[in-house]
Amino acid sequence: MSAKAISEADGKSLLTKCLPNCSYVKNKFAVVVNGSNWDEILKRNPWISTERLVVKPDQLIKRRGKLGLIHVNATAEQAREWIAERMGKEIKIGTASGLLKRFIIEPFVPHQQNEEFYLCIYAQRDCDVILFHHEGGVEIGDVDSKAVKLEVDLEEKVTVELIEKKLMQNVPPKKKRLIAMFIRDLFQVYSESYFTYLEINPLGILQADPLGEEGSDNTGTQCPTLFDKCAVVVEESIHVLDLAAKLDQTAEFICKSKWGEIDFPPPFGREAFPEEAYISELDAKSGASLKLTILNSKGRMWTMVAGGGASVVYSDTVCDLGGASELANYGEYSGAPSESQTYEYAKTILKLMTEGSPKPDGKILIIGGGIANFTNVSATFKGIVKALQEYQKSLLEHKVSIFVRRGGPNYQEGLRVMREIGSSLGLPMYVFGTETHMTAIVGMALGKREVPKGVGFDSNAAANMFFKAQDKSSAFPSQSAMHMMENSEKTPDEKPSPEQNRHPSRGSNLPLFTNETRTIIWGLQARAVQGMLDFDYVCERKRPSVAALVYPFSGNHRQKFYYGHKEIMIPVYKEMAEAMNKHPDADVMINFASLRSAYDATLEAMQFPQIRTIAIIAEGIPEAKTRQLNKKAQEAGVTIIGPATVGGIKPGCFKIGNTGGMLDNILASKLYRPGSVAYVSRSGGMSNELNNIISRTTDGVYEGVAIGGDRYPGSTFLDHVMRYQKNPDVKMIVVLGEVGGTEEYKICDAIKSGLVTKPLVVWCIGTCAGMFTSEVQFGHAGASAHGNNETAMAKNQALKDAGAYVPESFDSLFDMIREVYDVLVRDGTIVPKPEKNPPTVPMDYSWAQELGLIRKPSSFMSSICDERGAELLYAGMPITEVFKEGLGVGGVLGLLWFQRRLPAYASEFIEMCLMITADHGPGVVQNCNAYVYRDLSWATIEVDSKPALSNNADIVGDRFGGALDAAARMFSQGLDSGQLPMEFVNEMRKKGQLIMGIGHRVKSVNNPDMRVVLLKDFVKKNFPVTNVLNYAIEIEKITTSKKPNLILNVDGCIGAAFVDLLRHCGAFTREEADEFVEIGALNGLFVLGRSIGFIGHYLDQKRLKMGLYRHPWDDISYIMPDHLQHLRPASFE
């Protein structure tokens, strides 16, 4: 959503902070909410105790004065009592009921009726409007008919003289300049702070307080404003008494520092649920779109719909079929959310759905959506399935019936997963694909339509389309097509040469796209580019439509793509100018830049005369920026499609980005050749649904454009309808309008004036909006009515009255299109042509693998870690559980090395081993090696500790650190063979083998190694069985009797104890325990532990800035080779 209402307190706070006009008395106020401490409020706002007050609710309630919700001229005590009487009280305003829970207290400003004025500034497509009336207040009445209006063109400078001339006719001369200066300054703040609506009623103009107001400059002295070089003598003061405002929420990334912390409260009558805030937070963190509005938490019909347009259509259908009172929520997910994001979204809805007591007649869950363009249906459905499994018990308790309908990339796999989970959950679940009309499941759910027995699309249907593309028999598009004409298709209109000057986009006779159209794409969108190339191939274009890519964040290079079976290279440029110069035949720019960059990228593209059309994909561009782009595009003769669009498609010629979805949908909807029906829609997802509907009811789509869901799209419905009207190949037009805006009325005027004569089928979605008790902002930013004439019902009626074909509901749009088409076939206007078979299309390996059509052996296998899902898994344990259970490093090591969750004492023992082996002084060989490597790195190239660490780890072996594995094998084998410790020692002596884990150069029986003492004490105290360690200790007694330093060392103690741990902790079989010893797991403990010390010594040498190391000569014995012993070393000559 773009324009969002803010509280009066936030609006006045913003004006107080940003409005520099010296006549303006800065607002001071206090906000009281349920639970506020009155004494604290008085302490922070001492003026409350000394001034007369105005008190009113601050909850987006209109006409509070007429409703008796304003208390004026009150004392502090009266204000407190008035608030206390109403706090938490439920009131009804129209059809909306809600609780009063937020109030604003302000100083009372005594004034006369003739000192009240009305002022409003709001945005329109091509201008900003300043509405002013010299009489304000509660009794203003119909202000639109009374007020004078000043339309300010975009980027026009507003002057005091202009305001005086246009708005001040009925204002006393003495006040004209004062008010005009205030309006000018306010308009500047309105523009810079990205307001979309700012209403002040009443605006009070009073004689200035001779003593001056605290926080203002109203002292009757000279006071310059921010926008004036001269000064003005202030004799009167301006008071913003009552304010209503909306901000463009999408501009937050621009205005965050100016706005500060601003809340966007829900409309009165609808409580803010924490779940809504959670989904809003998810939405803000995601590149996808996630929306949720709770309408009636006790309702029995819940929706989980994909797509901004589709979500409105489903809500419409529920209401049309009599389910408005039971509709529990409105929401949508779109923009390719991940499996984890969809899981969180679905889990939130299911939690709300299963709260409270079950209903006798059960509940209904609609998992719906149109045909996606690029969202992976299988991935999103897997997230939903995970949530359904989690809430299985609750869903059964509430007797939930589930109806599913979806299409789009990999939808066959998604439907298969849904069917499988339906049977395992034990819930009534009905699953349908693109063969079923989108909203048919709503009628089935409400018992208005029979549930068919045959369901879904075969999972291999997509593969069949690919493999059998050339073998299809000729199929005729409509049952009513009784006559055929064996003529070849007309060649699409020729493309103008790139040297040709731009023509104005409005009313141009030139087609936007032909089969020679070439485009430059801003952004590295490999998937979209490959989709466009596949479309080009199936349309049998002579050359690909993508000329080049522009990506400022990398150098010039080339990227590989496929054109059919052939590999091609497409250049990527860092600079747009270079791309334009090297590809002068490209006349379309597809802008995939983010919402922060899209504006600048579009402005840059419009500087090149060769560009005639720009598609802006990004959603969330501030409305003010969009309006500026529209103005510049109109001046430059450029057609803009978007923002917030998937693009458009011209079958047989060209498609924008992801429009039309994947190739299975392109083939199923016959978008590889032109038909006779052209359409224009706001929604990208719904445009794909129109592709499906039109292909099933007519001879197919000639062209389709999704103008975008923002309030001010670059091109309008009428722009494209007029293009279709002038194109002789278009015989019929379909328009899918939407609640919000007035662009559909221009179509009415065009029909009435005779400019549009072709049959036009139209439906405006959003008819449900009037049935809700509170205002609902739908998925698209522009889908919100700002007046009765912007409602979908009003627009549908106006279109019907004008002569357009308007169905009863979206549910019957399918039948209406077919009926109109059949009439055109019968009267000969449309002559169906033989079906054209597309070429065989190669299938992407990854897609074929997702569909389960192929398999390949994996190059690698992993059984300990999985990062693919919602969160990281260690041996099947989610990372959140690892921290929740406090497993620590030892526990994680157990999961990753041994695939088990070990007992607490085992994890503690592992951590103890790591601490004990972390270091043993700078004199050991590896730490000396770290010093040498440090010198080498300084002497040659500056590197970090990684190479030194790797170099040192290579030294670990049986004689240094590697004795853990060898000691564990020796001691365990000796014990298992039944040898007595003495027999074991004697055997090793006979073999001439050293006993690994026995002996130390420094430590002895008389000078014990405290590390070993600590280990033995811990093991004896905590391990259930210590057979191997006991065996090693007995061997130590024998060896130390011969030589006191032949003690059980750290390696031997850890090795023996770890065998006891593996064998007797209860997590492993005997075979598994022996395998871990054989594969060298225990040496890993030493390497991991000693790495801590390696890095420490390396950093220590760096920190101490030690010089280059050279080993002293007196520690080196210089000798000659044996055959040269008679010669003296050269250094002594």
UniProtKB/TrEMBL annotation:
Q: Where is the active site?
A: 780 (tele-phosphohistidine intermediate)
Name of one Pfam family that matches = CoA_binding
Question: CDD domains from the entry?
Answer: CCL_ACL-C (cd06100)
Q: Where is this region: Disordered?
A: 478-510
Report the EC number(s), separated by commas if there are several.
2.3.3.8
Where is this chain's protein located in or outside the cell?
Answer: Cytoplasm, Cytosol
**Gene Ontology MF terms in the entry:** ATP binding; ATP citrate synthase activity; metal ion binding
User: InterPro entries attached here?
Assistant: ATP-citrate_synthase (IPR014608), Cit_synth/succinyl-CoA_lig_AS (IPR017440), Citrate-bd (IPR032263), Citrate_synth-like_sm_a-sub (IPR016143), Citrate_synth_N (IPR056749), Citrate_synthase (IPR002020), Citrate_synthase_sf (IPR036969), Citrt_syn/SCS-alpha_CS (IPR033847)
Q: Which UniProt keywords apply?
A: Acetylation, ATP-binding, Cytoplasm, Isopeptide bond, Lipid biosynthesis, Lipid metabolism, Magnesium, Metal-binding, Nucleotide-binding, Phosphoprotein, Transferase, Ubl conjugation
Q: What is the official name of this protein in its record? A: ATP-citrate synthase
- Organism, by scientific name, is Acropora cervicornis
Q: What taxonomic ancestry is recorded?
A: Eukaryota, Metazoa, Cnidaria, Anthozoa, Hexacorallia
